[in-house]
What we know:
heterodimer, A: mainly alpha, B: about 650 residues, two-stranded antiparallel sheet, about 75% helix, globular, oxidoreductase (chain A), ubiquinone binding (chain A), transmembrane (chain A), NADH4_N (chain A), ND/Mrp_TM (chain A)
Amino acid sequence: MNAAGFPLLSLLTFLPLAGAIFILTLKGEDKVVADNARWAALWTSLIVFALSLILWFRFDKTDPGFQFVERLDWLTDFGISYHMGVDGISVLFVLLSTLLTPICVLASWDAIQTRVREYMVAFLVLETMMVGMFAALDFIVFYVFFEGVLIPMFLIIGVWGGKRRVYASFKFFLYTLLGSVLMLLAILLLWYRAGTTDIPALFQHAIPPAVQTWIFLAFFASFAVKVPMWPFHTWLPDAHVEAPTAGSVILAGVLLKMGAYGFLRFSLPLLPHASADFAPAIYVLSIVAVVYTSLVALAQEDMKKLIAYSSVAHMGIVTLGIFTFNVQGLSGALFTMLSHGVVSGALFLCVGVLYDRVHSREIARYGGVAKIMPSYAVIFMLFTMASVGLPGLAGFPGELLVIVAAWKVNPTVAFGAALGMILGAAYMLYLYKRVAFGRITKDDLRGLLDMSPREHLVFAPLILLAIWMGVSPQTFLSFFEASVTALVVRHEAALGAARLAGM
Amino acid sequence: MFVGAVFFPLLGASIAGFFGRWIGDRAAQLATVICMVLAAACGLTAFWQVALGHSSQTIEILTFVDVGGLEVSWALRYDTLSAVMVGMVTLISTLIHIYSVGYMSHDPSRPRFFAYLSLFTFMMLMLVTADNLVQLFFGWEGVGLASYLLIGFWYEKESACAAAMKAFIVNRVGDLFFMLGLALTFWTFGSVEFSTIFGSIDQHMDATFAGFRAYEVIGVLLFLGACGKSAQLGLHTWLPDAMEGPTPVSALIHAATMVTAGVFLVARMSPVFEYAPTALAVVTVVGASTALFAATIGCVQNDIKRIIAYSTCSQLGYMFFAAGVGAYQGAIFHLFTHAFFKALLFLGAGSVIHAMSDEQDIRKMGGIWKKIPVTYAVMWIGSLALAGVPYFAGYYSKDFVLEAAFAAHSGVGTYAFWCGIAAAFLTAFYSWRLIILTFHGTPRADHHTMEHVHESPAVMLVPLLVLAAGAVLTGAVFAPDFIGHHWEEFWRGAIVNAPHNEIMHHVHEVPEWVPLLPTVVGLSGIALAYILYMLAPSIPGKLASTFGGVYRFLLNKWYFDELYDAIFVRPTRALARVLWQTGDATIIDGVPNGAAALAADVARGAVRLQTGRVASYAFTMIAGLAVFVTMLAFGAAR
């Protein structure tokens, strides 16, 4: 039943939780506890990452179905069971989550000095929730994890955030929760009709088009906020600005992918008609997201806010790709999700490096940093270029595939998406110019130290990935291929069947 | 060997870039130069074998993408066209690396410079050896990156940073169309690989897109992409500003190689363009207009590098209209000879700037020709070649281009021919204006600078002399192969002329005055410059004040920058601000902010309750949620 021979996914999911519980039992002097908590969190997350690599090596890329499946009866009477498994769509996101967590722990090593133990616990709990969410194959289990993610994130922003952290954390929480309530109703409706919440079983269950519309809207409320799609995006800049660096990394790297993942996992396969009906609206929202938020990013004076807005623009490319319903578009969207996880995570870390030294996110506060911190400047440039979508780095293949796919659907839409290429270059280079180039005008900047070995270690895996994904995207795309093709085939079959029935 | 030609520069760039600080300046320079020499050896051998020895091949390296029929690989395609480019790029890049050792000897961050320079060369080589449009785009954007980094090399200068950004963003405007052209190519041909596209030209002849023939649309989109990179009218504004970079950069990137990528693209896609007559007409008109337009500006500029930059812009126009009338061979030949003499002119200008203690304004030069005789001589050679004076390299290629335009016997061809003739006159005029103002007359620099004027060291002069040899010889030596009687066996299908396109034959049948005319106007341009600046130096000033409007119009480069600033840059920034502060902050946030404000009040209370046991709080919530969901499901089931 399981390629690993043991319940790998459950282990990945709950090992961080065990680590968190262990950290909670730590006693003693504050300083010692903090130190032990850091090491315990790092080791836990590293072990989880090492285990998750089994997925990378043992995953069967030719099989479009779910693998590493585990199943345990939970509430049998109601058709609810504890069901875990990954397919080509989710497997790499599990890996992304397990990779980013140790990086976050390492990035917070010196930056977090208060309540270190609780901070590490929150991150490990967050990891549990993220992995669980991507691996869940039962709607209720999914929902529990999907909502569970909110809690540690809410605490991370609310407790270790910046000045307006309470405002930001509540905005974040309320926005996302509001959508989720509707999703819960939709899940109940689905369960009511099908008698099960098992996701593979639901795939077999055809839903009448009229009902699909309502369910789609309910899902949309939840996922669109999570993505976030324009105009539901304003919680994101605030959350990012106030969150500690590592919180932003996870937020941008994994949490933003949950919405798009939801569209891919549920909306498309369960609701093919509604998805096709709503596609034009999604295109419009996506293009508006790309153009509008890119413009807004251009006007930003806060580094984190700028990158947060750029995330919204990139997510516009993702939603556009998903709703093109062709192989290139879906693969491109998935690839953009991955690359954005790596690249924007790294960009937030870049901001964090400066923030740790100067304690300001204001762009005007910097200038001429390239002179004092040359190796930082190189890394920042690399990720700036990756974000701009320079070929040879991670951002490009996804963008290429989505634009090519969008052209097939509607050339105007492709043009709109491609406008992001110009605007993206404009705001990122403008940011880079103001931060790294120019003459040094602030005297206290002269004393800054270049990156420490620990910081190099934090960036190393991300740099490696950014280049690897850019040079050989096929390594990653091959994971999606079978599942995406199956999804497209099923989508077209469903639409075709309805057309036949209509005649 | 084929792989080496492309990847040696990358090796050099990596050594200098990543280890430059540890191994020191000298070792970093040495590493890049050695790598470049190796690359040049490979590149010239490749040229010898492929172009002259007639053996094309493609080397597959790695699969890039293979998604739902979109298959792209990293591969090196060596046919005559790419071999010509590889040989030229590696040779000139090597010379410029050597020259830079001398030119940059006072700069504190030399490893970085050499790393960028080698990185650029690598990207350019990837561009010309690409066997599909995506890899071409990789090189295309890669050279854009290197150009951005090198223009902004002196990043402490505000103007350099601005110029770098401008170059990248203006190029991106072109890239947008390239990308769309790529998408349409894929949906038309089902592939972006050149061999597949060229092999199935006949099958998709009738494909349409939005009512137009797909080939025409592809042609126009790709040409718009080429306009960005090759600084054609409308998207040319970045090129003169790019002169903020160090002079060797201007020579390598903004004259000899990168800016010619657009011409290369059109030549590479010649099988498609051949069946897109409207697109070709667009190429011709834009190219011809650019040739004339840039030449008019070149006549009144005062910065030595900007004059040469506008001259580059103008010569690129020649290449485009040559391609536009179907004489791709002529375009590539002009590209080839131009690379030598324009690199020579830029490096010569660099040598002058070096001698004049970094002065670039030709109004503050003069009277230095005796002090820097070698530089003076090579500038003459470069200008003679540029003006198309007989038996210099430019003569063969420029005459051919103009003859081709004439021989096209079409409306656009005739337009291009007369634009080209007018531009040839202006080219000769501004070249000699430059030479006379720079080297002759009374010294206008201050005493201190004049004392310092010195000939450049040998490490800079040797590349100049090699390029000078190229500027003299490449025309005569290669004309028979590129455009003469052996052209068919030389190109062997690397450039395709459709059966209906017989321009290569018609060129040899033009009336006798046609080949003569460029030489005549060239010489009269020289004569006019001699009269105005040598014999009667007071006239130019009087002309400028008499025709003040025209003069200012030209001096301000037809007000393109101001126009773009007014219609693109300012509105965009204003819009950005409005969208942020009104759109986001007021409208979109206005709705939930009421709720959020309420929530914040509640939060103040909540935070007080939460006394440090954050984790237990979190657990309670998760547990509560699980219970809640279970109960809800349970309740609903009843």
